Amino acid sequence: MISSFLNHSLSFLERKNRPVIVFLIVLYILAGVVYSFYLGNSFRYLPDEADYYNLATNLASKGEYSLDGVHLTTHRPPGYPLFLTPFRFLGFDVVGLRILNFFILGLCIFVLYKLLQERFSPLAGLLGALLMIAYPLVFYTAGTLYPQTLASLLLILIIYFCTRETGRTRENLLAGLLAGWLILTVPTFIFILVVLEVWSWIYQKHPLSLPVLSMLVIAFLVVGAWTLRNYAVFNTFVFVTSNSGENLLLGNSENTTPNGGFTIDISYYEKQAAGLDEIHRDQYYRSQAIKYAMTHKLASLKMYFLKFLNFFNYRNDLVTKTEASSARDLLMLVTYGPLLLVASTRLVFSKSFRLSPFEILLVATYLVGALVSAIFTTRIRYRVPFDYTLMMLVAIFINKLIKDRLVPDLNH
């Protein structure tokens, strides 16, 4: 009787999955709109949110990539400010930009659903969307002027276009544009090109085919255009942004802790760099981080391993103390913990439930992302785009359990 009820209910959801998804996305965005008005026009995380807002404002009003409206900069990656610029030109305030983030989040839900629905089943797509809606971190992050929500959408779209069985050169060109934009939004995502290339080599048997090459070339052209801009302005090579040195130093200095992030004390280096412009300050921070790592090899290796483990943490030490609370930490534990547990179980039983090539891509993206992040400093916020791959992996596993073990009639 229970099996019959499950079969009937799941069959109904599979038949009506599209209107259910649309209904859920509309409700989710409406909740985001209400939340945006509740937060108002003030910034919760300074100076990050204010920097992105000011960059977009100066681009819209003066056509200059500048924090103060006077001096040109490359201190922040340009992908997110460039996206916000036309909306600032139209007069969107902070609340309006927060609402925009929630529309992007709605697109994330739809693309994730579409990807799983096409590759596996409508039930898998619905499960993925429900997991995402039930994961409060993505909702909270969308309420900030941080680039992670946009980066999440770009990552899901890249995976969608690069893994379609009917993939064409046109789709790979689009994936290349999106990959270039993603790197300009979060530079460490350059690793995704390597992961996709290796995965394509192993599972699609065409590592240097025209579609793959076209994606790589377009991505590098997009990033190269910004790099040329930086060279023209600062007369030196700057890969995307001039704050990578600071991030590297935060993760590789005598005061570094696995979970410290921006609470780590680098005041000594800040005093030494006082008076330097942003380019030379970035170079100084990077050189000091490398020097520390080279002279403390064992300690740095141990710290790297601890930072890698911290990638999977449910809480961070925060500079903005007003945003820290035990209730939020508990909420993260009870929402992220089960995702990680189910995904780990999926890997443990990979012999019984053989991983598909698509699932292997998801696992590789998540783990390589953790390995790359640990070079710098690992934060929950930085992990947000990767968590979508975790949710997809869990949705596919639950879908397989339901259809193969609980309600096998759904396969017919």
Note down, in words, how this protein is organized.
It contains 18 helices and no strands. By secondary structure, it is mainly α. Helix 2 (17-39) packs antiparallel against helix 5, helix 5 (94-119) packs parallel to helix 8 and helix 8 (148-162) crosses helix 18 (380-406). The chain is globular and about 70 Å long. The two termini are 19 Å apart.
SSE blueprint:
Blueprint: H1 2-15, H2 17-39, H3 48-62, H4 79-89, H5 94-119, H6 122-133, H7 136-142, H8 148-162, H9 169-185, H10 191-204, H11 210-234, H12 244-251, H13 267-272, H14 278-295, H15 297-310, H16 326-348, H17 357-373, H18 380-406
Helix pairs in contact: 2-5, 2-6, 3-4, 5-6, 5-8, 6-18, 8-9, 8-18, 9-11, 10-17, 12-14, 14-15, 16-18, 17-18
First-last Cα distance: 19 Å
Number of strands: 0
* N-to-C order of helices and strands: HHHHHHHHHHHHHHHHHH
Most strands sheet: none
**Rg over C-alpha atoms, rounded to the nearest angstrom:** 22 Å
Assembly state of the chains shown:
single chain
Structural class: mainly alpha
Strand content: under 5%
Number of helices: 18
Percentage of residues in helical conformation: over 70%
Average of per-residue pLDDT values: 89
Tertiary shape: globular
Low-confidence stretches: none
